[in-house]
Automatic annotation (TrEMBL):
<keyword id="KW-1133">Transmembrane helix</keyword>
<dbReference type="InterPro" id="IPR000731">
    <property type="entry name" value="SSD"/>
</dbReference>
<keyword id="KW-0812">Transmembrane</keyword>
<comment type="similarity">
    <text>Belongs to the patched family.</text>
</comment>
<feature type="transmembrane region" description="Helical">
    <location>
        <begin position="351"/>
        <end position="377"/>
    </location>
</feature>
<dbReference type="InterPro" id="IPR051697">
    <property type="entry name" value="Patched_domain-protein"/>
</dbReference>
<feature type="transmembrane region" description="Helical">
    <location>
        <begin position="38"/>
        <end position="57"/>
    </location>
</feature>
<protein>
    <submittedName>
        <fullName>Patched domain-containing protein 3-like isoform X2</fullName>
    </submittedName>
</protein>
<keyword id="KW-0325">Glycoprotein</keyword>
<dbReference type="InterPro" id="IPR003392">
    <property type="entry name" value="PTHD_SSD"/>
</dbReference>
<feature type="transmembrane region" description="Helical">
    <location>
        <begin position="455"/>
        <end position="474"/>
    </location>
</feature>
<feature type="transmembrane region" description="Helical">
    <location>
        <begin position="69"/>
        <end position="92"/>
    </location>
</feature>
<dbReference type="Pfam" id="PF02460">
    <property type="entry name" value="Patched"/>
</dbReference>
<feature type="domain" description="SSD">
    <location>
        <begin position="1"/>
        <end position="92"/>
    </location>
</feature>
<feature type="transmembrane region" description="Helical">
    <location>
        <begin position="383"/>
        <end position="404"/>
    </location>
</feature>
<feature type="transmembrane region" description="Helical">
    <location>
        <begin position="486"/>
        <end position="510"/>
    </location>
</feature>
<feature type="transmembrane region" description="Helical">
    <location>
        <begin position="416"/>
        <end position="435"/>
    </location>
</feature>
Length: 514
């Protein structure tokens, strides 16, 4: 659906440029004129889209890397299709029109003595103006030229647009400060799954308890039968129990579970300080207790073993991230070789790097977009406006994402990577149309830009939204998040493309090819 939306958007641009060509020109001339106006524009957006996805490969998350690799490659193939196969279909249709052939049967139709609307519609491709030799402008294009463009370039309208943008930016920045990190694990399952009820019950009845974390002794040379060694290990466990987080205890002191402490209790083993007696009695103890899986023995050597500590007062993603860091720091600071582990740590690890990786991807991508814009849009100021639009849309999406109850996690990070690419599309189209316009004043350039590309931009936006709107009712948090962020990206992208950027460009009337 995503790639279909990108492809259809580029098709709309090409069709719009084709409709601006001379109807009775040779097909080669019409194709040359079409590609002259459309090729650079869709090349800019394709490069920025693909580059945004490939920059996503910098993230350490494998799921994000896979998504970005496949989607970036699909964007390139979609571009190749548009400039080859779709262009070939345009040429074939142009040849049909040139040969006076019917649009459905492709049978040759005699040219009437007088031009008629029926003939134009079925054979030429549509009604056209005999004075200009071009297809007649569609009513919505006339709306952009006769009404919307002049209204947008009115002085008072510009003032209103600036105020509107200030409100948009202020709300976005406020939302950015409200954004929450982390993902609720129940959101990884469908709404109807029992997993949701499990986590809801856990939060309701056991909210004071965090993960039951393994403390693993990884040193196969550790002498469990040595009283001094056991003392050092107990000291390490006591360090875990003394940890605090924001003034609150992080580990319950009376809930640490250690097979070793149970094994060396008086009466369990005749002499736990003797290596032979310790190792000979251990298998029997393990079989008769609940610690069977806590000790890994090979050839009477303990390869590794584990104890459990119970964390408490861990309720938010930030708490989980801080807890993970503190536990690892404590394990590294112990005299013994210890590793802390819990199955949920794979998610907590995301929290530790999600913000830095998101910022890194956005900054790198924005700089890359600036370089591409400078290469393909022949005016530095207009290229800066395109880069500004990227940053502005990203801030808006991030801010309103938070206000729409979407957390910053690996799922939303994927969508923000998409946002980087999509945020440039509409603004790049308008900026390129602005600088390539032959009008002499900045206001007329802006009107000309929205006249030629206002309708294709709306078509592309609507087609993309229709492609993903079905996901708004999905039972999966992942799909609903995808819809929310895509909706925000398209909405703010269109808002920048046909409202903010045309007005801002009029402040710099020097933006042209000369």
């Amino acid at each position: 659906m995503l790639i279909a939306g990108i492809g259809v958007d580029d098709m709309f641009i090409m069709i719009s440029c084709w409709q601006q060509t001379q109807v009775h020109d040779n097909v080669e001339d019409r194709m040359a004129a079409t590609y002259k106006d459309a090729a650079v524009s869709i090349t800019i957006t394709t490069l920025t889209d693909a580059l945004a996805f490939y920059i996503g490969l910098l993230t350490p998350f494998r799921s994000v890397q896979s998504f970005c690799m496949y989607t970036g490659t699909a964007v390139l193939f979609c571009y190749l299709y548009n400039i080859t196969f779709f262009g070939a279909f345009l040429a074939l249709n142009g040849s049909r029109e040139k040969g006076n052939r019917h649009w459905l049967t492709c049978m040759k139709v005699p040219e009437p003595e007088e031009n008629s609307k029926k003939y134009n519609l079925c054979c030429v491709g549509g009604a056209y103006d005999q004075e200009t030799g071009k297809e007649e402008v569609m009513p919505i294009n006339n709306f952009f030229k006769m009404y919307y463009g002049p209204f947008l370039t009115n002085t008072w309208t510009k003032v209103f647009v600036i105020l509107l943008y200030a409100g948009y930016l202020g709300s976005s920045i406020y939302g950015c400060f409200q954004i929450q990190e982390g993902i609720d694990l129940k959101n990884l399952a469908a709404d109807s799954s029992y997993v949701g009820s499990y986590y809801d019950n856990e939060d309701q009845y056991f909210s004071e308890y965090g993960p039951n974390v393994m403390v693993v002794v990884t040193d196969s040379k550790f002498q469990y039968w040595d009283k001094t060694a056991r003392k050092r290990l107990d000291t390490c466990l006591e360090r875990f129990e003394s940890l605090t987080l924001d003034g609150r205890s992080l580990v319950a002191k009376n809930m640490t579970l250690s097979w070793l402490n149970e094994y060396v209790k008086p009466g369990r083993v005749s002499n736990p300080n003797n290596e032979t007696i310790f190792m000979d009695s251990l298998p029997t103890f393990l079989q008769q207790s609940d610690f069977t899986q806590d000790v890994n023995i090979l050839n009477k050597i303990i390869i590794s073993s584990r104890m459990f500590i119970q964390t408490i007062n861990v309720s938010t993603a930030v708490d989980e991230k801080n807890m993970l860091n503190k536990l690892r720091e404590t394990a590294n600071g112990c005299s013994e070789k210890l590793v802390v582990y819990h199955p949920a740590f794979i998610y907590f690890d995301q929290y530790a790097v999600i913000v830095s990786n998101t910022i890194q991807n956005i900054v790198v991508a924005t700089l890359a977009m600036l370089v591409i814009s400078l290469m393909l849009i022949p005016n530095p100021i207009c290229s800066l406006w395109v880069t500004f639009a990227i940053a502005s849309v990203i801030v808006g999406v991030a801010g309103f994402m938070a206000l729409w109850d979407v957390n910053l996690d690996s799922v939303s990070m994927i969508n923000l990577v998409i946002c980087i690419g999509f945020s440039v599309d509409f603004s790049a189209h308008i900026s390129y149309a602005f600088v390539s316009s032959k009008e002499v004043t900045a206001n007329k350039k802006a009107v000309d830009a929205v006249y030629h590309l206002g309708y294709p931009i709306i078509q592309g936006a609507v087609s993309t939204i229709l492609g993903v709107v079905v996901l708004s009712a999905a039972e999966s948090y992942i799909f609903r998040t995808f819809f929310k962020i895509m909706f925000l990206v398209i909405l703010f992208g269109v808002l920048h493309g046909i409202v903010f950027i045309p007005v801002f460009l009029t402040f710099f009337g020097i933006c042209n090819f000369n």
